[in-house]
Amino acid sequence: MVKRFAGWSLSGPATLLVVICLVVPVAATIAATFASDAGPFALYQAFLESGFRRRVLWRTLEVALVTTIVSVIVGFFTAYVVSRAPGRWRSVLIILAVFPLLTGVVVRSFAWLIVLGRNGIANNFFVWLGLDGAPYPMLYTQGSVIIAMIYLFVPLMVLTLVGVLENIPDDVIEAAASLGASETAIFREIIFPLAVPGIIVGAVLVFTGSFTSYATPQLLGGDQQMMMGTLLHQRAMVAFDWDGAATVSAIMVVVTISIVLAMTRIARRLNPMAT
Amino acid sequence: MTHRISPALIAFTVLVYLFLLGPLVIVIGAALSDTTFLTFPPQGLSLRWFEKIFEMSAFRRTIVTSLQLAFASTLLALLVGIPAAYALNRYRIALPGWLSTLFVLPVLVPEIVLGFSLLRSIQVGAGVPVLWALLLGHPLLVLPYCVRVISASLASFDFSIEEAAISLGCSPVKTFFTIVLPNVQSGVIAAFILAFITSINDVSVSLFLTGPGISTLPIQILAHVEQFFDPVVASVSVLLMFLTIAVMVVVERNLGLTFLAKYPDAHDRTAHPDEPDRALRRKQRAGRSVARRRLGRIGVALGCLGLWQDHDAAPDRRVSAAHHRNDPVGRH
Known about the structure:
Shape of chain B: globular
Helix content of chain A: over 70%
Number of helices of chain B: 17
Order of helices and strands of chain A: HHHHHHHHHHHH
Number of helices of chain A: 12
Low-confidence stretches of chain B: 256-273, 294-332
Oligomer: heterodimer
Distance between the termini of chain B: 52 Å
Low-confidence stretches of chain A: none
Largest interface: A-B, 89 and 89 residues
Structural class of chain B: mainly alpha
Order of helices and strands of chain B: HHHHHHHHHHHHHHHHH
Mean pLDDT of chain B: 76
Largest sheet of chain A: none
Structural class of chain A: mainly alpha
Radius of gyration of chain B: 23 Å
Number of strands of chain A: 0
Mean pLDDT of chain A: 87
Radius of gyration of chain A: 23 Å
Shape of chain A: globular
Helix content of chain B: over 70%
Strand content of chain B: under 5%
């Protein structure tokens, strides 16, 4: 009894903060989407009937999926090299991967404006090469958003996977090598299966992160490449359509949380090291 | 380590690292440019765009606001987060299992939804002023880092040490400050750095909560980029980068091991019997300058108080949005 009182009073302030500032407001936002005059699902119906918003949802899923797949592939091989690098190199490489994470999303997205603009570095290079049709319009395309997102999330993926890959004992790999397994076989049969739970954790982070991003699509996609985050902001702050914004919010929450729940369940089942 | 990595993989990793670090180098290069438009490589080097930041009151104000907000939010989150982390570990059986999940919710719920919901319920619904809404939103946003990181270090803490101190007549409060807290100090520092970085770089929550008069640096940068495309943004970005690194280094090196401990010398050997020499020496050196530290803490407190100063002339971001884009470099 005493313990329960002590526990609750110590965790009370933090609990209150989360309940008052997160649980209640977010629940209110979601509840508001069902309180429309035209019936409980009218707002969702309106969302799905609008071709523009359907396209935004579809585009967001597409961008998030491509970003996740590329980040997983790039992150996996990079993390493998980092985790097997000799000690001093390994810490240098990890610090270099952490460094971009310390820099804000705005700064890192802004960097791509300098690279991809009409007079940007990439286009200057293409003109210098004398390519046909250069300079190309690269900003405000889906490609520019995806490149910046991959740039944003690869460090996260690398750091998540380095932790997992470091835990694979060297003995296992050496045993396989001494028994004649080729490098590809070692990758396919040993390292990859052991890394799957980590890959899933990283993929969930990247997918939910890119699905809900705002700054990158805003800076590099503009209005032409509107995504769920920018649509939410546009509905709420430019159009003052709070019901619409609440609907976008509810869809984002449902997609994010169901992916997190589903993937953690799958990760638990797939873990070959689990006892 | 006899297993060799194939050269193709190493080359691939080098390319990935170039991809990761190149854009940051480009931003730094663009910030040092002496032209009036953004370009890389810079045609001539100058620091004029850094001077320009401080000539523009909007940037000056938002830099100060962002720093103060990040400090205040981190301290607030630690203030409620440390007891919560302690309770989660110490009274695990007495508390329901969902409580630890509750503290992770701020990272689980999409940040932008959180920002919009805070605007709806707290700012508009409950009429909380801009500054207070930010001071609720940011601590909420960084709370998960505080609770999780400190919980992780408490998980390896042997609570029998605490019980021993209490049974020997030390009061529970004093025990917490002299025995428990020094043992999880590395966790507290890590939490501080993570929380500070999260808060100072936050876009999605501030986006909705900043209002007339009060803005944060990332929001100001976004607003500026939408209208102009000059190297000021690059130099502000570089400044933000170095501010973050400076805070990390300062917290790690100086405040580091004595930041929250009351009697830094008393538990040196007892609390960490096998701590490496270097850390021990650093701790003792830090112990000698407790007075200076306390001064520093007062400074932090004063800086946070400065948050209540007038922010009247800061620009209203919403007016600027998307209206008149001039486009000197042809981004379209």
